[in-house]
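User: My instructor asked us to take a sequence, write out its structure as tokens, and then describe one feature of it. I'm not sure where to start. Here is the sequence I was given:
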Amino acid sequence: MRVGAGRGVVGTDIGDVDIFIVSDDLYARGVAAGSKGRNGALRVGETIKYFPEIASVEQRISSEIGTGASVRIFSTQGFMRVRNGFEVFG
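Assistant: Let's start with the prediction itself. The structure tokens for your sequence are:
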């Protein structure tokens, strides 16, 4: 398996996988539910708390690939702040 990581590093020896969902709607729903939503992003723990369905997918991905996975929700504006540090697929 080859996975893109921060700063354009690609390889097979990865420690974990970070999955970013960019959705203004999900971000707004998280904030409305009580998330602090700092800098246009929900923390991993907030994503799990306010979106338990995503948490179950996160656990399944971790199990399937045999390493940790975490999912974070960003607003479009929040993701644009961090985007340059990651290889973006899509």
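For the description part of your assignment, you could build on this observation: Confidence is low (pLDDT under 50) at residues 1-11. Try explaining in your own words what that tells you about the chain.
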